[in-house]
Amino acid sequence: MRYDPAVIEPKWQKVWEDRRSFRAPTEPAELAARPKYYILDMFPYPSGAGLHVGHPEGYTGTDVLARLKRMQGFNVLHPMGWDAFGLPAERAAMRENIHPAVITQRNVDTFRRQIKRLGFSYDWAREISTASPDYYRWTQWIFLRLFERGLAYVAEMPVNWCPALGTVLANEEVKDGKYVETGDAVERRNMQQWMLRITAYAERLLADLDGLDWPDGVKDMQRNWIGKSVGAEITFRVADCDRSFPVFTTRPDTLFGATYCVLSPEHPLVGEITSPAQRAAVTAYVVAAAAKVEGGTADEAKTGVATGADAIHPVTGVRLPIWIADYVLMSYGHGAIMAVPAHDERDHAFAVRFSLPIRDVVSGGTVDVQEAAHVGDGRLVSSQFLDGLDVETAQARMIEWLEANGKGTARVQYRLRDWLFSRQRYWGEPIPVVWLADGTAAPIPVDQLPVALPAVDEYRPTADGKPPLARAGDDWLVVTLPDGRVGVRETNTMPQWAGSCWYYLRFLDPTNDDAPWSRETEQYWMPVDLYVGGVEHAVLHLLYARFWHKVLYDCRLVHTSEPFQRLFNQGMILAYSYQDARGKYYHPSDVEERDGVSVLRTTGERLTSQIEKMSKSRLNVVSPDEVIDQYGADAMRLYELFMGPLAQVKPWQMSGVEGVYRFLQRAWRLVVDERNGELSARLSGAAPASETALHRALHQTIEKVLVDSEALRFNTAIAQMMVFVNEATASATLPRAIVRDFLRVLSPYAPHLAEELWARLGEPELIAHATWPAHDPALSVDDTIELVIQVNGKRRDAITVPHDADAATLERLALASDGVVRTLEGKAPRKVIVVPGRLVNIVV
Length: 844
Ligand code: ANZ
Known about the structure:
By secondary structure, this protein is of the alpha+beta class. The chain folds into 4 domains: 21-132 and 501-569, Rossmann fold (3-Layer(aba) Sandwich); 228-414, Valyl/Leucyl/Isoleucyl-tRNA synthetase, editing domain (Isoleucyl-tRNA Synthetase, domain 2, Alpha-Beta Complex); 573-769, Isoleucyl-tRNA Synthetase, Domain 1 (Orthogonal Bundle), CATH 1.10.730.10; 784-843, Ubiquitin-like (UB roll) (Roll). The protein is built from 27 helices and 37 strands. Strands 10, 11, 12, 13, 14, 15 and 18 form a 7-stranded mixed sheet that branches. The chain has a 4-stranded parallel sheet with strand order 2-1-24-25, with helices on one face. A hairpin with a 4-residue loop joins strand 5 (152-162) and strand 6. Helix 18 crosses helix 19 (633-642). It is globular, with a radius of gyration of 32 Å. Residues 229, 248-251, 254, 328-329, 332-333, 335, 337-338, 340, 343-344, 413 line the site of ligand ANZ.
């Protein structure tokens, strides 16, 4: 009667499903009875490859918390669904000649099966897929809310056009002029595109970050992406003609240091002001710049050409030559700058390259401005009415002067651009709009939603460059509106980000046919209390979803201005990969360790091992199925969380799974006598004497697991449970009450095992429905000491341990501490020196 996860896990999963144990309540009375906790995972894109062990890391953490919160008496909403539109399914459809919906369904089925095997406590009754018509109907509905408010508009835009794919790409899909996925060349083209006016929300998207419990790094990335700059707009007249152009500057104080101006090659004035002598050179430069992706790379040498025209300095009236150069972007500010080479690095490099004058107007730098730009603080010099002022005061004074003389104003500028929202693809939400004969766009009436994806025979754009939806027949394309006007449907689809902008709201009320969600469910469940996912979504998904949420807030459809109150990023899980001298990869099952060296089992050839991202091509993908087949879901769950701090990047190691599996076996033996399958003879019905060490250890464990779990320090919570099981294993008798309380503590982490032992102890109810045990603070504070932990003699961590913990316990705790896990990076220690009561030194 050994611990056999293959038997007990499917059994309890079925019980939970039959009893609908994890259903989030829906009845008003149930909702009113308890506080709520909405805990959300970033839902996956169901790729063809299935899950690897990295995916469920965050899901395991949220599942522990979801179970814990239920035990604490919360109504918990813990849902799962599929971000199911996207290019990979469309590509697979072309390859395999199967409809993308079929491919997506196949992938979803695999993902669901794999996720279910882990025993997560999702409310599966709320499962959603962004590609199903009763979901995207509401995505389209929200799009129309944006359209009504003037936040969705069509513009002729320079876009990244990929001729090989026949589609535009988002900026973030393009690097160095190539599509990041395939390396296909990308060129710039003007095309009519749908845009979403996210820039109208720039200030609120920025300001509201302050109130969020999010990692600082993510908030900073969003701040940088929004890129707020405070400065001035200054107008320069063009000499000898009645034209003028504004520039944006963050340094109006340096106006007296401006020695030339630069226009972007795309600036509308370029053609008009260029002198005949410069015309040929300017035209050649403009044509060459048009073919390049905007801005070029940062360290590229500055290029440019003079227009032959001059600007008039707004204060001194001095003539400044006007150049054009591609380091000035048309898409930022006004596409024109005043160049101050003494105090701006880019301008300095340009001035040196083209021998333009450099004029120092801020003293106090240690460098000679002829050699390098002085970008720091100082006092203004050679600047008339600004002389002697510090930079900040001089900026305010200059803005006053500009405003008084009608030559400029204070101005705030954002780097954020409007969101390019149309894609020339098939597998996405059709944009619910028709084009009328007069060239205007009209919304599809709400009662005609969804605009369902039509069947087409080909997913490629048409020969004349129209999106694949243009292949649908006139039955689909031609629409008569209720007022009799006839139009042709928009054939662009939405980008993949659209569906994930609001899925957390559909989970509230997933089967509602009258509205995307009901007011009552939104009032009750929102905001999301904890959102867990990868840091790769730090900007785009999280910014787009915040934007939509704020629009919905303005439409009075949601009652909070932010969707996700607390955010946590799990660290990526890596894996060992093995390569021979020629760089060929081998699967771990072909590798053997001989004398501490990895060799190829068949030939004995030495291999190098490396910790890398899991990928098919490196043959180092570990699938959850193989782990569960060998050790069970509970061991897999525990190892996911015991590997190290959740936020840390760390490598998967099967030997680590083996370790937590042994822990589960020890826990099993606390209750079960393996010889006969009866209850262990050590279990006693007597009430626990409150002063025993075991009783104290229990209360410490209850408290530590609670505190650590809520702080998402799952690894140290597990280490504490290991300490308890060791104590209990060593104890001659085991009061049942103590074991019962411990099982409740263990149950969020290893729910199947806890459920099985709970039942064997004769408990009539499920442990999944049990409450969290109370701890007695008088017992949980113990004489503890601070244990210093060193690696190779260097202090790496300090943890609190019981004063009387034995050497073996100290060693285990030390090896599991954050500092050690981080320092060892998966390396095995050679020796562990324990000085009880003082320190542990780990030698590697
Ligand atoms: C004069 C000046 C003097 C500037 C100085 C800087 C330092 P951020 O912080 O990114 O907003 N700039 C303005 N529009 C530009 C464009 N379209 N393309 C490239 N550069 C542009 O930077 C604002 C500064 O970037 C502006 O302030 C301008 O250069 C430049 F000592 O104006 B500055």
